[in-house]
């Protein structure tokens, strides 16, 4: 029995919990900028030390770190904030069809307000074409938003090259680094992105805390009104215990963890090739987040595999974590060219420091048995697939939260 859904969320490390507790019990003041009492000063100290720790992990100035409630808020702040601040220079934004919903829905909202959104194509691995990006840039382009790695298929984009292109054209570049932060080196001295989004709960930190890195001189406007917290960009009382917990998760991260999860991913791939028939690995074969493995299984519906394996004690995901609850085919798998009857057999397995090869052995055995049983009565074997994408298209205009 094992938890294999760390790209969705990871368990909080006990050391993180212990670091957070004093900020619930003792240092429970607020981090106001005005002179306050000792409780406020202690809270402010904890917050600013956490900010320094996050900044150090990026080789960045602490003043570039803005704490948010998570990567969804960070993405909204980045895209909508840059759009408002730069609307005098243009209203053209470039992104990809495989971004997370917080990016896609933010762009869609801006499109309704008169902005123009260009979607780059992706190949069968989910990679963009840098030449197409260059051709898509216009005089009125103000923002490029391309994720560092896709959270469903793991493919890593050439973000360093994208940043160089954006800098030469004086265009803001934003990347969602949710699935690469602490797993792939990010050095803001050499990587010239204007804005980087990530959160804590995928690196064994608490939920409800994220970061938007904002490079100096980035033109961005606040999207919420209120106080002067977080460089006047994110008003409201800061979640100080969570910020401290995030910092602790960063401090205890060991470099060999990334090698560990990469070895587990390779071990799983080897075991599946030995034991399972009728599956295709999705995402780039080499250039991908080390902890994410994804595939589509022939003639089996992903939701059925998820439910059966969950009853056997193995937690996985199917489709992207943000859209699988809708029972629609993954927008990521559609974008890389997989038809609905294939994409509905998607499975994602993602690892952390807590997983072992022994867990993988048990998982592969149960997965093979589950697939064999489901194929015996699957309608997919006769060419009838679970969801008709064409008939379901009229639902796609609804935001995810409206389902």
Question: Could you name the key traits of this structure?
Answer:
disordered C terminus; 403 residues; 14 helices; Aspartate Aminotransferase, domain 2
Question: Can you summarize this structure?
Answer:
The protein has 403 residues and is α/β, with parallel strands linked by helices. 38% of the residues lie in helices and 12% in strands.
Explained architecture:
The protein is 38% helix and 12% strand. It is α/β, with parallel strands linked by helices. It folds into two domains: 14-251, Aspartate Aminotransferase, domain 2, CATH 3.40.640; 256-402, Aspartate Aminotransferase, domain 1, CATH 3.90.1150. The chain has a seven-stranded mixed sheet with strand order 2-8-7-6-5-3-4, sandwiched between helices. It has a three-stranded antiparallel sheet with strand order 9-10-12. The protein has a two-stranded parallel sheet with strand order 1-11. The radius of gyration is 22 Å and the shape is globular. Residues 384-403 have low confidence and may be disordered.
CATH architecture term of the largest domain: 3-Layer(aba) Sandwich
Instruction: Write out the CATH superfamily name of the largest domain.
Output: Type I PLP-dependent aspartate aminotransferase-like (Major domain)
Strand content: 5-15%
Show unreliable segments: 384-403
The coarse overall form would be globular
Given helix and strand content, the structural type is alpha/beta
Radius of gyration: 22 Å
Under CATH at level 1, the class of the largest domain stands as Alpha Beta
User: Major beta sheet, specifics?
Assistant: 7 strands, mixed
CATH topology of the largest domain: Aspartate Aminotransferase, domain 2
The helix/strand series, from N terminus to C terminus, equals EHHHEHEHEHEHEEEHHEEHEHHEHH
How many domains in all? Answer: 2
Q: What share of residues is helical?
A: 25-40%
Mean pLDDT value? 91
Tell me the total number of β-strands: 12
* Widest sheet, order of strands: 2-8-7-6-5-3-4
Number of helices: 14
The termini sit apart by: 32 Å
């Amino acid at each position: 029995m094992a938890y294999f859904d760390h790209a969705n969320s990871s368990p909080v490390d006990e050391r993180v919990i212990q670091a957070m507790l004093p900020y619930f019990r003792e240092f429970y003041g607020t981090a106001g900028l005005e002179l306050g009492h000792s409780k406020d000063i202690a809270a402010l100290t904890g917050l600013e030390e956490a900010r320094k720790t996050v900044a150090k992990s990026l080789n960045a100035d602490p003043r570039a770190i803005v704490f948010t409630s998570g990567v969804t808020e960070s993405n909204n702040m980045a895209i909508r904030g840059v759009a408002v601040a730069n609307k005098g220079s243009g209203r053209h934004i470039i992104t990809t069809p495989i971004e997370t919903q917080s990016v896609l829905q933010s762009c869609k909202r801006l499109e309704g307000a008169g902005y123009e959104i260009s979607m780059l194509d992706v190949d069968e691995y989910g990679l963009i074409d840098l030449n197409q990006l260059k051709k898509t840039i216009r005089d009125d382009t103000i923002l490029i938003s391309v994720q560092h790695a896709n959270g469903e298929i793991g493919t890593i984009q050439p973000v360093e090259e994208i940043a160089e292109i954006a800098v030469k054209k004086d265009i803001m570049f934003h990347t969602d680094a949710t699935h690469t932060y602490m797993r792939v080196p990010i050095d803001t001295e050499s990587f010239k992105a204007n804005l980087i989004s990530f959160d804590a709960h995928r690196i064994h930190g608490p939920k409800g805390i994220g970061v938007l890195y904002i490079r100096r001189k980035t033109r961005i406007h606040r999207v919420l009104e209120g106080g002067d917290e977080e460089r006047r960009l994110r008003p409201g009382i800061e979640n100080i215990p969570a910020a401290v917990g995030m910092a602790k998760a960063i401090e205890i991260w060991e470099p060999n963890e990334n090698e560990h999860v990469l070895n587990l991913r390779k071990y799983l791939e080897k075991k599946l090739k030995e034991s399972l028939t009728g599956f295709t690995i999705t995402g780039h074969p080499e250039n991908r987040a080390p902890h994410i493995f994804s595939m589509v299984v022939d003639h089996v519906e992903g939701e059925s595999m998820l439910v059966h394996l969950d009853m056997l004690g193995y937690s996985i995901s199917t489709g992207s974590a943000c859209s699988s609850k809708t029972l629609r085919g993954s927008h990521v798998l559609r974008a890389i060219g997989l038809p609905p009857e294939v994409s509905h057999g998607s499975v994602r397995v993602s690892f952390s420091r807590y997983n072992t090869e022994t867990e993988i052995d048990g998982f592969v055995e149960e997965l093979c048995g589950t697939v064999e049983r489901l194929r015996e009565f699957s309608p997919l074997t006769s060419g009838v697939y679970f969801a008709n994408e064409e008939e379901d298209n009229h639902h796609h205009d609804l935001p995810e939260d409206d389902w």
